[in-house]
Write a structure and sequence with these properties.
The protein is mainly β. The protein has 1 helix and 55 strands. It is globular and about 80 Å long.
Length: 568
């Protein structure tokens, strides 16, 4: 509610929610909607009790900015420090000038709690490493404030029932040494592992209805869920993590070796590592590896999707992450098929953006003809892929009854929605690089090489030109000499070792520093002249490189031109 003084002209000032709340600090935010006809003085009043009207003299603390500091439409803000943990505070903004004054209604917030979990804690109250909870679920249940942080020691936590996370605003953070408050953090050195006891077939974590929440530095492994016996047309999803109707950030996490398995016919098995439904997820610096969705021999009519990740609705952004070696495996007889799709990622609907990612070595292996789709990615929603490697994925037939079947689609990407690739490398996917079967698909500033059939089913005009493909290096020769496309060996550094940087006689990036090659890739400076290139190191030829490293700090350098001196 906004309170307005009766004098005119009216001054309107509002409180905005407190932000960056920690156990000991917070930022108090306001907004000046109207300052009337003269500069205003702005004050913020605060304390651990509500002092009512700002000028009542009952507020414990105040801060005032003189006239002219804040203009109409500006947002005054003030940081409080030295606060008590897990305590409620109140604040109120006030503005005045020679014509009158105005104040906002009282706003409140509660400082965050710090909770600790360690297998060697006493379990008393979770307020320190010594008294840490020994059970992660206990800490999740205790985190009722929108700003709480749960610190997990770098230990292995074995569960027998899935963890349930339904409280918003919680940060679940692993990788701690377990000394200090909270002390040193290094998820690589002190790895926090949450694993299922092999004797119990259980999902690792169920997340529902949360917002403003973060999971950091955790390894989620060993989750196992299966269909029930003699119960047709059921759905089982998310052996590692199931996310529903939530807003979540996943950072520096590893989701590995989780399994969804059909032990009956006529079932839907989805998302071996992660299943997401109508959620907004940001995933950064994560690994989704060696997860599986499995059919079972002699059963049929199973729908098997998303070995690593399945997304239904919502919005996903995946940055600087690796989705690799995940598997969708179907069986079934020739007359009783199993549908298998999305070895790495299955996007049923919604929007997804991949930036700086590797999708590699994922497999879809079905048991019947034409039922195996999208070894790396099967996309039926809206997908944007930028600066990504889509490499060595496979969608192929199985060996049921001793026969191997083919005619499968999209080893790299199976596109059945709206799919856009820019500055990507789609390489060494054995049968088909990108297969468009419906919807819209475009590829620009990319390298599509070594895929058997590089581009399948793309829209063409009456001259046979792929109308949505431009400035690409394509081994098959699609669009060669048209729309900026070429068909020349891209000179990858070492694809057998997974290095798809471009060779350059001036400089090629490696983890150990820049090196030079005896040859220079024709894909350097071959991008669309109108595309951004400023992130490429000098010399960059003032033009974009093709492939996954174009317009990045790892772009191979342009061959420097020599200087010709003419002596007379």
């Amino acid at each position: 509610m906004i309170v307005r003084h009766l004098l005119t002209p009216i001054i309107v000032i509002e409180n905005r929610p407190a932000t960056s709340v920690t156990p000991s600090s917070a930022w108090l935010n306001g907004y000046l909607a109207d300052i009337g006809q003269a500069p205003v003085t702005v004050s913020v009043y605060w304390g651990d009790t509500d002092g009512g009207e700002p000028t009542s003299g009952l507020w414990q603390f105040t801060n005032t900015w003189g006239q002219g500091v804040w203009s109409q439409g500006s947002s005054p803000t003030f940081q409080l420090t030295g606060l008590a943990e897990n305590k409620s505070y109140y604040y109120r903004y006030y503005a005045a000038n020679s014509y009158g004054d105005g104040w906002a209604a009282t706003e409140s917030f509660r400082t965050a709690s710090s909770l600790y979990v360690a297998t060697n804690g006493s379990g008393a109250d979770g307020k320190s490493w010594a008294t840490a909870f020994t059970n992660i679920q206990t800490a999740l249940d205790a985190s009722t404030n929108n700003f709480d942080t749960i610190y997990l020691a770098g230990q292995t936590f074995t569960i027998t029932n899935q963890l349930v996370w339904t409280n918003s605003g919680v940060t679940l953070q692993g990788g701690y040494e377990g000394i200090g408050e909270p002390g040193s953090n290094d998820p690589t050195r002190w790895q926090t592992v949450i694993r299922a006891d092999p004797a119990y077939k259980t999902r690792i974590m169920y997340i529902s209805g949360i917002t403003n929440s973060t999971m950091y530095g955790l390894k989620i492994t060993g989750g196992y869920i299966q269909s029930a016996v003699n119960a047709q047309w059921q759905t089982k999803a998310g052996a590692g993590i199931f996310v529903a109707n939530s807003a979540l950030t996943l950072s520096s996490c590893c989701i590995s070796s989780n399994v969804c398995a059909a032990i009956n016919y006529q079932t839907n098995m989805k998302g071996g590592g992660i299943y997401s439904e109508e959620s907004t997820v940001l995933m950064t610096n994560c690994s989704v590896r060696a997860n599986q969705v499995l059919g079972q021999n002699v059963f049929e009519y199973n729908y098997l999707y998303g070995g690593g990740i399945e997304v239904k609705g919502g919005s996903w952004i995946i940055r600087n992450s690796v989705v690799s070696e995940n598997l969708v495996k179907g069986y079934g007889y020739s007359d009783y098929p199993e549908w298998a799709a999305g070895g790495g990622i299955y996007q049923e609907s919604g929007t997804m953006t991949l930036e700086g990612c590797v999708v590699g070595g994922n497999i879809v292996r079905g048991g019947t003809d034409k039922m195996n789709r999208g070894g790396g990615i099967c996309a039926a929603g809206t997908l944007s892929t930028v600066n990504c490697l889509i490499i060595t994925n496979n969608a192929h037939g199985g060996t049921t009854s001793g026969k191997c079947v083919a005619d499968n689609a999209g080893d790299g990407i199976y596109a059945a929605g709206t799919v856009r690739l820019a500055n990507c490398t789609v390489a060494n996917n054995p049968t088909q690089g990108i297969a468009r079967v419906s919807g819209y698909a475009s590829v620009s500033n990319s390298i599509v090489w070594g895929n058997g059939d590089d581009l399948v089913g793309f829209a063409t005009n009456e001259l046979g030109v792929l109308t949505t493909v431009g400035y690409c290096d394509i081994e098959d020769g699609d669009n060669i000499g048209t729309n900026g496309c070429i068909s020349l060996d891209p000179l990858f550094a070492n694809p057998a070792a997974g290095d798809y940087h471009l060779k350059s006689s001036t400089g090629r990036w490696t983890p150990g520093g820049w090196v030079t090659d005896g040859r220079t890739s024709p894909c350097i400076d071959a991008g669309d002249k109108s595309s951004p290139y400023a992130n490429e190191p000098q010399p960059n030829g003032d033009r974009l490189n093709l492939g996954a490293y174009g317009n990045t700090e790892q772009a191979s350098k342009t061959t420097e031109k020599g200087t010709l001196l003419i002596l007379r």
